[in-house]
Amino acid sequence: MATLPNPLPSLASSGLDLPPGSLVDATLDGPWHEPLLWYAREQAGPRDWPALRAAGRRLGLLPVLVSGGSRDQWPEEWDLCPGATSYAGDHDADEVLESYWTPYEDDEPTDREPADREPTYREPAGHEPGDGEAPREGTKRTPWPGLAPAPAGEAGEDPDEAAAGLAGVLTADPDGWLGEMRIALVPARRSADIPAAIGWSGPVNHENDVARLCAVLRSWEDRYDARVVVLGFDTMIVSVGRPPTTPEEARALAAEHYAFCPDNIDQSPPHDLDVYADKQVLNQEVWSFWWD
What we know:
The chain is 27% helix and 15% strand.
C-alpha cells in the first residue's frame, strides 16, 4: 500500500484555523516517530466538525470526536499501538467476522430444554477442539451466517452530513452521558480507517490488531453509509446513514455486531440478540460499541 505523507508535523503552517490543541505521539511502547493525531484542549462545539472536515480533508485529515469518558482519559493515555496495527485493506470483513463468531445461544427455556437446565456453554471465539477433545456438553455450533445484505431501501441523508449532524447533537450537550468531547484530526483517507491510523487499542481484549475491525467498518461504510464519529478509551460511536429498515435486515446485521463487539450483548441485559436487533439496530441511525 502506498502511504500518503502525514500532514500533522506541518499542521502549524497548514493555514488551518485551529483552537489550542496538542499533537499526540504517545504510545504503549513510547513516543511514535510522528504524530498520530491532533486534538483540541477544550470541549468541542457543534460547528467544529463541519468546519474542520471541510478544511482538513484537503490536507488528508479527517475529524473525529475524542471522549475522555468518566475517567478523564485522553488520547495520551489510550495505550495506542500503531506498531501492532496492519492495513485494513489487507483484510476481508466476512473472514474477520467469521473468525470472531461465537455461536449465539438463546437461553430462554424451550419445549426441549427445561427451565432449570444448566446454562448452555458457548465455546470461546476461535476455539476448536484439539485431537481427541470432544466439544463440551451443551455446545451448539451455529455456522457463521455471512455478511448481511445492504438494506433494500433507498439511501437517506448524505452520510457525511449525517455524521456532522450527530457530532453537532453530541457536542451541544457537554453534560451528556459521554461527558466532555473534543475535536480531533487524524491522517486517514476514509472514516473507517481512523482507528487504525492512530493504532487505537480500545478493543484490545477482543482484537489486538484494530485494522481487522476497520475492515468491517469499511464494509459498513459501503453497505450502511456508516461513519466513525466518536472514539474513547474503549468506546466507539458510529453514525449510520442507511440503517436496516426491516426486522430481517436488523437481525442479519445484529450477528455482525455480536462478532464485532460481543460485550454489546454479553454484558447488556437481556443478553438476547433478537432484542438487540430490534432495539439497537432496526432503524437506528447511531450505533455504539464498548469493549470491556
